[in-house]
Amino acid sequence: RRNPIPDGKSMWGTFGALEQQNQLVLKNALERAGPQLTSKAERKAKMYYESCLDEDETMEKRGAEPLQRLLKQIGGWNVTASGFNVSTWTLQQRLQTLQNRYNMGGLFGWAVGEDDRNSSRHVIQIDQGGLTLPTRDNYLNRTAHERVLAAYLDYMVRVAVLLGGDETEARRQMALVIDFETRLAEITAPPEDRRDEEALYHPMTLAELQERAPFIDWRSHFEDALRLVKRKVTEKERVVVYAPEYLEKLSHLVANYSATVAGRVTLNNYLVWQTVRSFTACLSKAFRDAYKGLRKALIGSEGGEEPWRYCITDTTNVIGFAMGAMFVREVFHGEAKPQAEEMIEAVRGAFKDNFGHLGWMDERTRALAREKADAITDMIGFPDYILDPEALDAKYKDLDIDTGKYFENNLRVNMYNLRRNLEKLDQPVNKTRWGMTPSTVNAYYTPTKNQIVFPAGILQPPFFDMTNPRSLNYGAMGVVMGHELTHAFDDQGREYDKDGNLHQWWANETIERFKERAECMRRQYEAYRVSDRSLNGRQTLGENMADNGGLRAAYHAFLAAPEERQGLPGLNLTHRQLFFVAFAQVWCSAVTEETIHLQIEKDPHSPPRFRVIGPLANMAEFATEFACPMGSAMNP
């Protein structure tokens, strides 16, 4: 009641509040006069932000024109009068245009990434993909998601009409696109079936992929893409496929649709829709408003946050390390870094000590696990290069930004990102490359780098404050640190060794005993219910393990630190109790009903409430400190 969800949000808690605080820091930095921006990259960020804010209403004046022009350039959309000709249309050509010229999605996903089995090299990775709605369940469980599907169709029709289409005809054709996406959903594996990384990894040549999934010419497709970086491709090119069964079934589905004129029209309508929906946010207000109904159906909020906040987020997504340089100069002055490093080492030490208490782990695996824990590298705050204007400019030198053209800026960003990704193919992996921008309120673990990262954005109150007692810092930030460390040994992270390579390094009997304990945790979380729905214990298993392991490691690290004698004024709580209060406060949230439902279907994390009561119910120390009766919910 005291913290209602703000307009435009579907969830509100400590993460969101700190994120808004960081947005304000960035807004103030950007809106000051230019001389304070020390690099060209920062000036590009300012120009992009101004193009998004659109204070002279250029987007309103241009209306649908930028996207109508793009539709003609890519070969037309049957829903509008944009030059589509089914008799000359081929799937190969359309996919190459949309994926390799404009970096758009559709049918499947691919990118250059770190090879899981040889993490020092890059490889082309191909996976299932192509659904517009957040989950396959949105399509397959029509009774539960009738409102979402109706809102989705209305959104498609509104956009088509804004682009000049006839409403009745647009409704008929886009309903067929939803039918096609439903067929895609039927062959898409659910996330809970995709947690075994070794089982997902299928290396093969393009020639072998061609035999299994002949719906396009794969060599031609990647040769066309890599022409952008002057890289040749042969049928012997080795790729990693994470969903071969999906691509095989997709071949049959595409063949069925390609056999008729109506089917080919639907295929093109679907592919072009993937591009159209990506650019509606870059057009006039009418296009942006078209999404409100679907957003409301999905997450219980129509949006409507202040435009500057949307534009700060968008600019950070696009030129995040230039934004990070401004953020760091404003709020992160380096004093926090040594203390954060000290906390990480303390939590790591407590985490390693716990291996000695795991009776189910054999000695050889235990020794290798300790080696892996020691080998985990950490990066705190920000990458040093962002404070070097020349190095920062070099990162964004190929990105051109025009203050008055938000739509075109987004086109350029897509191509810049595609080129940057393709350039990595023959380059060694940079193990110190950041994957999260400095102002982000989050943290992460990368299994192929065996690395944990804590951006400056989260190293602030209420997560971390150098003036706070250790109980509060360990209860909040210490648990986040422990959470990321635990990911190195969760049901997926444990499959990677200390060098970040995917292979079996645990003994078979230890794996079986680990799985028994994982099954126990799955059952615990599936017993939790919200709005008459059980949590998905398989889908959330890795994050639940990290929540439990992180809490335990941080608590033991806190106990090992020098004892604090003075309590907090006005609170009759010990520091041990304060540790648990600080932990719980991190996840204190207000969430809409729709967002809770979407979290249960899609999110690998449990809803916030269960991220607190689940781990605490598993800790005897919590029950002791708060005198929870034996057999009660928090002391089962």
Looking at CATH, which topology of the largest domain would you report? Collagenase (Catalytic Domain)
CATH architecture of the largest domain: 3-Layer(aba) Sandwich
Radius of gyration: 26 Å
> How many distinct helices?
27
Instruction: State the helical fraction.
Output: 40-55%
Strand segment count:
11
Q: Could you say how many structural domains there are in total?
A: 3
Name given to the CATH homologous superfamily of the largest domain: Collagenase (Catalytic Domain)
At the first level of CATH, what is the class of the largest domain? Alpha Beta
Rough outline: globular
Main sheet overview? 4 strands, mixed
Strand content: 5-15%
Model regions low in confidence, pLDDT < 50 over at least 5 residues: none
How is the largest sheet built, in terms of strand order? Answer: 2-3-5-4
Helix-strand makeup class: alpha+beta
Distance between the termini: 30 Å
Mean pLDDT: 96
Protein name: Putative m13 family peptidase
Main location: membrane
Pfam families: Peptidase_M13 (PF01431), Peptidase_M13_N (PF05649)
Domain Peptidase M13 C-terminal: 442-636
Account of the 3D structure:
By secondary structure, this protein is of the alpha+beta class. The model has no long low-confidence stretch (mean pLDDT 96). It folds into three domains: 1-61 and 305-331 and 384-425, no CATH class; 64-282, Neutral endopeptidase , domain2 (Neutral endopeptidase, domain 2); 334-383 and 432-626, Collagenase (Catalytic Domain), CATH 3.40.390. Helix 2 runs antiparallel to helix 16 (307-331) and helix 5 runs parallel beside helix 13 (261-279). Strand 2 and strand 3 (118-128) form a beta hairpin. Helix content is 54%, strand content 8%.
